[in-house]
Amino acid sequence: MKREAVVGIDVGGTRTKASLVTVEGQVLTETVTPTPPRLGERDGERLGDLAAHVVAELVQTLEEPAVLLAVGVVVPGLVDEASGIGVWSANLGWRDLDLRSAVAARVDVPVAVGHDVRAGLLAEHRLGAARAASNVLFVPLGTGLASALLTGGELVTGAPWAGEIGHVVVVPDGPPCGCGRRGCLEAVASAGAIGRRWSEATGLTGDAEEVARRAAAGEPEARRVWTEAIDALASVLAPVVAAAGTELVLVGGGLVHAGDALLVPLRAALDARVGHLGDVAVEAAALGDRAGSLGAASLALGLVGR
Ligand SMILES: [Zn+2]
């Protein structure tokens, strides 16, 4: 009997990651491919082509053929999961695009559409660092900055802007943000912003990990940029933690490679704000950049009742 499987696809601003997973949850093969530019143009035709290409590539690498039951696609930005509509993505260039139809027209199986960060939290909850927790705030810190919330073991979907904490203003008239406004959390505390702000202040080039190293070594400009980022992040996370009864703040994305240089001061900054309310743990996510595609596969499995 042929094995039954699903494919989870995580469409990022620059890279698209995909996983082929059996209905028993075994990851058989994975792939990473560049995300084509202007993906949102031509009514989602390019997105459909990308999904079909990725699925074909994964299926080809299998030693034994499998029956494809469903596909899950997760994207950044504002997503209406119920209707499968990509409401808005600045990076991928769409507004009100019917993602589900665009992909389903090419892959010929049922398609689930989700938000990349919520799907990542789903994967961390089922397979990763949030397995033992039911009240979790997941914050991947990378080029951008968004969040996802699990309360009572259930993902909070809310309105399409759920999780978009990166565009909460933390410094009025602060640094410009990709969304067109100024002083958003993403423009102060994302990995991209940390490297950029330090480079602007010093004339040197370096990424956020470099800033973390220099901050730990006591360099004043690096310390200033790093501390401002952590304080801004804690100031936005703390009210969410208090409102939602969060027990675990799970930090993911590229910046988590900074390790204790990030986790220790973030723990302290959150503790200073909400520590008297209860025990809030701050930990590193476990699945790295596979969380999105594994979460997308979970959505696909859910679609076929697995
Ligand atoms: Zn913004």
Automatic annotation (TrEMBL):
Top-rank taxon, per record: Bacteria
InterPro entries the record matches: ATPase_NBD, ROK
Family stated for the protein in its record: Belongs to the ROK (NagC/XylR) family.
Protein name (database record): ROK family protein
Organism: Terrabacter aeriphilus
